[in-house]
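Complex 385.
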Amino acid sequence: GVRRMRAFGTTIFAEMSALAVRHGAINLGQGFPDSDGPPEMLAAAAEALRTGQNQYPPGPGVPALRTAVAEHQRRFWGLEYDPDGEVLVTAGATEAIAATILGLCEAGDEVVCFEPYYDSYAASIALAGAVRRPVTLRPVAGDRRYGFDPAELRAAFGPRTRLVLLNSPHNPTGKVFTRAELTQIAELCQEHGAYAVTDEVYEHLVFSDAGDTHVPLATLPGMRERTVRISSAGKTFRCTGWKIGWASGPAALITAVTRVKQFLTYVNGGPFQPAVAVALGLPDSYYDELRTDLEARRDQLVAGLTDAGFGVLPSEGTYFVTTDITPLGGTDGMAFCRSLPERTGVVAVPTEVFYDDPEAGKRLVRFAFCKRAEIIDEAVRRLRA
Ligand code: PMP
Ligand code: GLN
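Predicted structure with glutamine bound:
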C-alpha cells in the first residue's frame, strides 16, 4: 500500500469487535446501540423501500432531508443554513470529515486537532497529505474533567494552519468543550485565517452534570462563515448502520466538500434519507428521553466500574466513559483490552490508539454505555467477578 497509509493497520473497532464475537463477550468496545431507533423513522424507511425510492438520490441529498437538517439546526442551535447549497448529505459523518479535509487541505497544510481523537481523523488527514498538529487533552487536577493548556493550543497554530478539527461532545473522553474553551479556539481560528470543521455527532448527548451545555462552534461570533459543521443520524437515532450524515456551512465551503464527496460515494442511502428527515422532526420529548435514558446507563456503568476497582474519569456526554486501569495494577491498556474478553467476557477499547503519542493514553481504557440496562448489569457482574 501507499506510504502515507502505512501507519494505519486494522481499526481498533474491527479488532475488538472480532474479539467480542470470538469469545461471545459483551461488546462495550465499539460504540453502537443494541436497540432500534424511533419507530416513526423505521416505518418511514420501510415505506420508502416499498414505494420504490431505491435509486440514486439527488447529489446533495433528498430535499426533504436537507430541509429537515436546516430546520433542526435552527430549532436547537439558532443556526441558519440554506437547504439548497449550504447542506450536503454524506455517507455518515465519516465521509463528511474525509471529504471536508480532502476538499480544503493542500498537501503540507496543517490541521490542529485535539488528542485523543476519533481514529478516522488521522487517516483522513494523511489521505490529504496534510499534517496533524495534536493538542493533548488531559484530566485536570480537581474534578478530573479533561482540559487543554491554552499555551499548547496557541503553539499548535502557525502559518501553515489550514483548519482546526474539533469534536465536541468528545469521543473517547466524554468531554464537552465549554463556551470559554470554544472562544479560545474561535479567536485562534480568526487570528490565523483558519477554517473550523466540527464533528458534532453527539450534539444531543450531553448529561445534566456536564460543565456546560453543547455549544456549536459555528454559533460564536465570526465563526459561521468559516465553519463546516458535521453531524449524523447514527448516534441521535440509534441507526449507526444506515450511515446518513451531513455537512452544513457557507456555500463556498460546502461546494468544496461536495466536489470531493461526489467522487467518493457519489450519493448514498436513498431510502434512509427520507426516514432520517422524519426522525429529525420528532418532538423535543424524543431528544429528552434519549438523553435521560443514556445518562441513566452512564450512571449504572460508572457505578459498576468504580465497584470493580477502575479509576473512572468524568463523562459529561457521548456514549463513552474513560477509565484508568492503574488502581487494578494495569500498566498497558492495549494488553489489558486484548486479554479482557477471555478473562471476563467483556470488551473495551484501549485509548492509546487515539493518541499520536501512545504513552499519553497507555493506562486508559474506554467503555461504551449505549447498551440496554440488563446488558450493562451483566457486564458489570462479569467485571467484578
Ligand atoms: N465522529 C465521531 C466522534 C464518532 O464517534 C463517530 C462514530 N460514531 C463518527 C464520527 C462516525 O459517524 P458516522 O457513523 O456517522 O460516520
Ligand atoms: N464511533 C464508534 C466508536 O467510537 C464506532 C466507530 C467505528 O466502528 N468506526 O466506537
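DSSP finds 13 helices and 15 strands in the chain.
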